[in-house]
């Protein structure tokens, strides 16, 4: 869903990429899934089970993948993973995972029903 290069500005003083930057990429990836499935604006209401398995380094290619787990009346639950790949190598390794809940909202920011038919 999202593929981006981790840059020096995203790193701490040790050269590891900030967890907050990764969470932001994951949130944006989940947002793409939620907006597409709900056919409109959707906002993050919860993020559960965030796990950081391995560090990401400057220059790594970071890919964010997501899968809808559940569609409720107005909310969606989306499992998100981020994977890193050293830019000179082929192997991809999972670095983070979390479950995001988004709520579809109308123009007033209030929950709106999601079409249950896909
Ligand atoms: C033209 C220009 C285009 C521009 C294009 C730009 C695109 C750029 C892309 C960016 C993509 C990034 C995407 C990031 C998205 C944010 O970062 S959004 C910012 C952060 N989030 C917020 O500000 C949301 C703040 N919260 C709220 O406004 C309200 O809590 C909400 C979300 C509207 C919910 O209101 P509420 O009155 O609590 O709703 P309520 O009726 O009680 O519950 C609604 C549903 O939520 C569920 N729910 C409520 N709370 C929870 C909870 N804590 N846990 C789980 N489920 C919950 C309920 O179970 C219910 O589910 P359903 O049974 O209906 O399925």
Automatic annotation (TrEMBL):
CDD domains: BFIT_BACH. Gene3D superfamilies: Hotdog Thioesterase. GO terms for molecular function: long-chain fatty acyl-CoA hydrolase activity. The keyword Coiled coil does not apply. It comes from the Bacteria. Residues 1-108 form the HotDog ACOT-type domain. Keywords: Hydrolase. One of its GO terms (biological process) is fatty acid catabolic process. One of its GO terms (cellular component) is cytosol. Signal peptide: none annotated. The keyword Hydrolase applies. Belongs to the acyl coenzyme A hydrolase family. This is Acyl-CoA thioester hydrolase. It comes from Novosphingobium lindaniclasticum LE124.
């Amino acid at each position: 869903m999202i593929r981006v290069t981790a840059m020096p500005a995203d790193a701490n003083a040790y050269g590891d990429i900030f967890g907050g930057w990764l969470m932001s990429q994951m949130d944006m990836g989940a947002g793409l899934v939620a907006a597409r499935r709900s056919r409109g604006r959707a906002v993050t209401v919860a993020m559960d089970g965030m796990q950081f398995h391995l560090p990401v380094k400057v220059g790594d290619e970071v890919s964010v993948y997501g899968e809808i787990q559940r569609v409720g009346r107005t909310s969606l639950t989306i499992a998100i993973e981020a994977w890193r790949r050293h830019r000179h190598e082929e192997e991809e390794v999972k670095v983070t995972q979390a479950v995001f809940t988004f709520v579809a909202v109308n123009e007033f920011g209030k929950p709106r029903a999601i079409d249950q038919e896909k």
